[in-house]
Specification:
Layout: E1 8-13, E2 18-25, E3 29-37, H1 43-47, E4 55-59, E5 63-64, E6 83-85, E7 88-89, H2 102-108, E8 112-115, H3 119-129, E9 132-137, H4 143-150, H5 162-165, E10 171-173, E11 181-185, H6 191-199, E12 203-207, H7 213-217, E13 223-226, H8 237-248, E14 253-256, H9 258-266, E15 271-287, E16 293-304, H10 306-311, E17 315-321, E18 327-332, E19 337-340, H11 355-367
Parallel strand pairs: 3-4, 4-6, 5-7, 6-8, 11-12, 11-13, 13-14, 14-19
Antiparallel strand pairs: 1-2, 1-9, 2-8, 3-9, 10-12, 15-16, 15-17, 17-18, 18-19
């Protein structure tokens, strides 16, 4: 595979920090909230995860691109990130089953990136200063001009984004008349979550984010699933209102990531934006029911308030983050509903938490 000519690129952060590197992927200018992911594998799954919509990703792993891209590993229909920052970018990939190189893949999907950045230094900066907006460009090198581009990037707090990534039409996953029927509220769902339901003989019908309970209920589902997705949950009153109705109707409900936050808001529990979020494959979580710990895959910049949850009369904490004591799961005491902040489908990541899908199936069967 021929390595393209080296081309200059600039990364500008909201606090004025600038980094010069080499352009990768699509040539152009793109802005978003910059954050970092500590996962050592699964870069393609990360870039196509709708939860990352509106964000520039910094890979902390030094070498990116060395195993290429495979069409079966996309988590959605295309890349969802606003930009990519890496240290060493590899144009020559070694995996025989790869369908194309990562650079060609990013270029084809109009994803702007920058390489040869000291990502260790950059991550330490973000950890200290917090997640902030940034812009990458391989065509604009004047800082004042880049600052104008950066000023156009919206703040992630109070930003509703699920409507930008949700499906535009209802579709089914799994064979009809087999197993349980799960109504999926698509707030930005990953394909691997649907695969986990399909493996458990469930039929899923996926609905756009703004679908009403009444419309989903026409299908007569056995349970409701609230998906992951991007943006600030507090800006999603339409989804919170729908979940309130689901709960009032006593329907079995399970949420993941953004779904966890929307469930909390529907139960009157607050959420807030984190300093720099959790994004990686090695986050330790304790299950307070079993006393066992799990190594989890995570991707979230917002979280449920532990203080607010502990004041609630109708919900309880079920999982806790062992790194920073933040909320990783909750259950409603008076409704058949629970959710977790992390990703049990683990794509990429460890498989410690797939039991949660089985717990949901059991909850539905008990409710029936």
């Amino acid at each position: 595979m021929k390595t393209p000519p080296r081309k200059k690129a600039i990364l500008l952060l909201e606090d004025g920090s600038t980094y010069e590197g080499v352009s990768i992927g699509h040539s152009g200018t793109s802005g978003g909230e910059i954050c970092f992911n500590t996962g050592m594998t699964g870069y393609q799954e990360i870039y196509t995860d709708p939860s990352y919509f509106g964000q520039i990703i910094v890979n902390t792993t030094s070498h990116i691109g060395n195993y290429g891209v495979h069409v079966d590993e996309d988590e959605s229909d295309r890349t969802k990130i606003q930009g990519l920052v890496v240290n060493d970018f590899t144009h020559q990939f070694s995996r025989l089953t790869a369908t194309e190189g990562l650079n060609e893949y990013l270029d084809r999907q109009n994803t702007v990136g920058i390489s040869e950045i000291d990502t260790r230094k950059l991550v330490r900066h973000i950890r200290s200063k917090g997640a902030m907006n940034a812009v990458i460009s391989s065509e604009i090198f004047d800082v004042s001009a880049l600052e104008k581009e950066l000023s156009k990037v919206p703040n992630m707090e109070s930003l509703e984004l699920s409507s930008k990534v949700t499906t535009d039409k209802v579709y089914d996953i799994g064979s009809a008349n087999t197993g349980l029927k799960i109504a999926v509220l698509d707030l930005g769902i990953k394909r691997s979550i649907l695969k986990n339901f399909e493996l458990r003989n469930c039929q899923c019908r996926v609905f756009p984010a703004n679908t009403s309970f009444e419309e989903m209920e026409k299908w007569q589902p056995d349970g409701y699933f609230l998906s992951n997705g991007p943006g600030d949950p507090a800006a999603m009153s339409y989804a919170v209102d729908t979940v309130k109705t689901i709960l009032n109707k006593e329907r079995p409900t399970f949420g993941i990531c953004l779904g966890n936050q929307v469930l909390a808001l529907a139960a009157g529990i607050d959420t807030y934006k984190m300093h720099h979020g959790h994004r990686g494959l090695n986050h330790p979580v304790k299950n307070l029911k079993t006393g066992l710990s799990e190594i989890t895959s995570q991707n979230h910049g917002f979280v449920v308030s532990k203080e607010s949850l502990e004041k609630s009369d109708i919900a309880e904490l079920t999982h806790i983050d062992l790194n920073d004591d933040t909320v990783e799961g909750l259950r409603l005491k008076n409704k058949p509903a629970f959710a977790v902040q992390y990703h049990p489908e683990s794509s990429p990541g460890p498989h410690d938490s797939t039991y949660l899908f089985d717990d949901f199936i059991q909850l539905i069967n008990e409710h029936k």
